[in-house]
Amino acid sequence: MRVSVRSLSILSMVLLLTPVSLMEASISLTVRSYVDCYIASWEPDTPHASSQVLKVSRTAVGNDTVEARALLRFDIGEIRSHIPQYSKILNASLVLTTYNTSNPTIEVWDVRGELDIFGTTWNSVRSGLPWSNPGGDLIEKWGEGAGSFPQAEINLTSYVQAAVDNELKSSGWLLVKIAEGQEGYYEFYSEVSGSNGPVLTIEYEAASLSIVLEAPEVVVTQGENISMRVYVTGHLSKPINLSLEGPDFLSYEFFPQQGFPPFNSTLNLEVPDTAPGGEYTVVIRAEGVMEASAPVNLTVLERKGFSVVGPSRVDLVGGLGRNVSLRVVPTGNFSGEVSAGVLGSPEWLNVSLSPQSGIPPFNVTLSLTSLHGIEASGVLSLVFTGARNKVYEINVTTRVRRVAVYSNDIDWNLSSEDLISAANSSGVTLQRINSTDEFGNYDMVIVLGGHKAPTDSNMPSNIAASLLSGAEKASLIEGGQVVHVSLEGDTLVVVVAGADRYKTSGLLQLDLNGNGIPLAQELLAGDPRGIRGA
Asked: Which pLDDT score, from 0 to 100, does residue 79 have?
């Protein structure tokens, strides 16, 4: 879609009503704890592993407090194996199946250290290694909730997000305890109990990032400003920044420049009066923990000038000419004359232009012919001079032509020596084919013999009979000779025919153009469309 400044502003109002992205289904994951235990201050050096029920409590006894805390571990590696890093965690809950409770508020913390449940106690991380603080070295509280029947659910969305983003300071052990300032008890089933054990239920959107543009093509006149919408789609837990790569004269600003996908941003572009007219590629980038980009084709119109429209690439076949049309169109109120010329060209390329000047709008025809027998590529630079100079570049490639011969054995035996010799000196590989179905595989097919040439196994059908005109057939009957050239699809088909087989063979040796080059050589190295009589 190509959009002007006016139509872009109208489209903006429409797209403002469009959601930034289609609703994407979230993904659910359930992870079970694979090891747990509890520790008790009244048995400070006794481990409590393999228990069906985990105890969490706090009770005041005189001036002292006795307490039990539960420790459980989820496989962080398993979570990361399912959820790509920087995915957006929508919700994560620790679900505990209640055995007995006084309905206290319970808290979930992570703790330092690598525990061994058969040696973990109120006083020790594991056998022989004490806690810095008896009852567990707490790091951060990640959630709290009511310890109620039939289940307790504690929101741990931030914890799982940190785990997925590889930002946890712990090895994955969680500690469950009574909230500070409260007393009571909460008992829940351990992982040993089977299906009633602790689980993490996670809902997330997988990490993704892309850019959708309001308009991939924009046309603006010198001195104008333009705004367009940029839709940053996807899901990430981290913000991304927007930036732009483009020509030096272009000023830009995003509002906002940063955000969490998905979000919308407005891109303001400022094109100064001095900006050169022409077509430019502008790349909008979203960068952060992931990257995405999208190109914009920007056309700058001069207030008083002209532009050149045409192909940026042309593929040639050695020795075969090709015409290419360029269109010179005015911009603004320009009405002067524009002249065209060649600024630079590969040495293997012959170029001519017609006309070489005109008043826009007008067409310029490029006639291009490359040398035969080479494979090459290069840049053709044209200069157009009017209100200012413009350079127009075309990438040009050339390759060796593919040539085949279609004939009966009689004509082939009489003519093959001349054709093979011409092919060898031209650097062309000559193939003999026996079916008209193969014509499309070649740039040029030489057909030997006229409409009366007999068919055989190598020429099962007389194609010349359908290609030659009535006048050409009459000429052959009267003892003349014919070189007929026609374009069949993308293939040049050249019928070389004399009044009989010997005159057909002799025709290949004649210099029809008067340049000292026999016809066989003209066919293999030149353009048969320029042969006299063709």
From this structure: 94
Rounded to whole angstroms, how far apart are CA atoms 419 and 494? 13
Contact 303, 388 (CB under 8 A): no
* 475-486: average pLDDT: 94
> Which range is most confident: 38-47, 57-66, 162-171, 516-525?
38-47
Strand order in the sheet with 362-370: 304-309, 322-332, 362-370, 349-354
What b/e sequence results for 335-355 when a residue is b if at least 16 CB atoms lie within 10 Å of its CB, and e otherwise?
A: eeebebeeeebbebbebebee
CA gap 428, 439 in Å, rounded: 17
Write down the pLDDT at residue 242. Answer: 97
pLDDT at 533: 59
Give the number of other CB atoms < 10 A from CB of residue 162: 20
Pairing of strands 199-205, 129-130: unpaired
Answer for the pair 163, 79: CB distance below 8 angstroms, yes or no: yes
Distance CA 303, CA 332 (A): 4
And the tokens for 72?
Answer: 């459980």
Average confidence score pLDDT of the chain: 91
448: enclosing H helix or E strand: strand 444-448
Could you tell me which of 231, 234, 235 has the C-alpha nearest to residue 212?
A: 231
> Which of the residue ranges 5-9, 301-305, 477-481 would you say has the lowest mean pLDDT?
5-9
Q: For the segment 358-414, what is each residue's pLDDT rounded down to a tens digit? A: 999 999 999 999 998 899 999 999 999 987 788 999 999 999 999 999 999 999 999
Q: What is the 3-state secondary structure (H, E, C) of 378-418?
A: EEEEEEEECCCEEEEEEEEEEECCCEEEECCHHHHHHHHHH
Distances (CA, A) of 321 to 18, 39, 370, 444: 51, 90, 7, 13
Nearby residues of 33 by Cβ (< 8 Å), 6 or more positions away: 72, 73, 74, 191, 197, 198, 199, 200
- Distance of CA 431 to CAs 90, 424, 436, 442, 529, Å? 67, 12, 13, 9, 21
Q: What tokens appear for 478 in the block?
A: 């009267």
- Work out the angle at residue 471's Cα, subtended by the Cα atoms of residues 470 and 473, and round it to the nearest 5 degrees: 65
Strand 304-309 and strand 313-317: the pairing is unpaired
- The sign of the dihedral angle between the CA atoms of 466, 468, 471, 475 is negative
The pLDDT of residue 2 is 42
Q: In the numeric block, which tokens belong to residue 157?
A: 């969305």
Query: Both ends of the chain: CA-CA distance in Å?
Result: 45
Helix residue spans in 301-388 (DSSP H):
none
**What is the Cα–Cα distance from 178 to 243, expressed in whole angstroms?**
49
| 3-class DSSP assignment, residue 152 | strand
